[in-house]
Amino acid sequence: MSTAVKLPARESAPHEMSDYDVERIRADFPILREKAHGHTLVYLDNAATSQKPKAVIDAIVGYYEHENANIHRGVHYLSERATEEFELARKSAQKFINAPRPSEIIFVRGATEAINLVAQTYGRTHVHAGDEVLITAMEHHSDIVPWQILCEQQGAKLKVAPINDRGELILAEFERLLTPRTKIVGVGHVSNALGTVNPVREIVTMAHARNIPVLVDGAQAAPHVAIDVQQLDCDFYAISGHKMYGPTGIGILYGKQALLEAMPPYQGGGDMISSVTFEKTSYNRVPHKFEAGTPDMAGAIGLRAAIEYLQKLGMNNIAAHEHQLLEYATRAVSAIPGVRIIGTARHKASVLSFVIEGVHPHDIGTILDQQGIAIRTGHHCAQPVMECFKIDATARASFGIYNTKEEIDALVRGIKKVQEVFA
Hints:
By secondary structure, this protein is of the alpha/beta class. Helices cover 38% and strands 16% of the residues.
């Protein structure tokens, strides 16, 4: 039987947009004109990766056609141009999350590498035998496994704050687990499996009252809500470019300047040094200390284009549009008999996970795919979340800036088709 679901509330009320033209936005994304099994593509897998606007594609092509050269080392024209564009991308990222300084922005391959970097630099310096690392039960594997590795290396213990049956962090339990042995907290801003928006500012305040630093996994937040790391006061913030309409293989680690300067390098190689002899190596200043080797210049330039595209639309406008989609989808899907929504937090971003009675999620995904509808099925790299809800997997529809209510209607028809097949 279906379960009544209370519609998610906004974490903050973005202003309503009068000029948000979703059809114009869709025209900026060439892939949305593709056919899937003869049907118009309905792409609802944005939490896994987002599609790319022409502006991002053109920026990457333009770099390779007009500016391709290695950066920071060359004195010739192309190298100087490439370096300038790369560092402009860093400044765009700084502005996007309101970091105090460009030097607090480190380019990485994505949120996964950002978290591993912090675990293996700050973590190995500050976490020792008998210490604890605190995370939550709704974390992505990328915010679990790096801390497990650290704890195994150092003889520390990984502690997990529980969630309730709505998929919300139990703040009282989280606070109880903060002890003198807790050396760092890792928490997702938005759950990729449930859509839950965590109260990050409150979490940071609790941790900082005990002098515990906080790393926030922002991979699922960056495409959907305005991020202000100064307002959040987090110590580290991790972002993946490919989830926010940018290229794959590029991401951002924000870290407070004093922490970054005190941390040892993550990798050794070119450009992260100031001098090298066989006896002694001196390291470059932040952020270059953490960017060993030739970076993904094209990726950074593409990410800059994605940031500028999002800023042009306005993050509050995006949040309002996606909230309307989530409300509409929650109401429509929860009204289908035999469908249960997994994750009913009061504050959610644009993720709708569900199960259908008597049907495996992989079968749901396969039948929807035959109708041109792309969703994600499985554990979503969040197996502990599935264990909390005593299920193996869910079907997950996730919405982005170009999705429409008509596409949600197609999803609803697709779900009913799945039920017909398994009747």
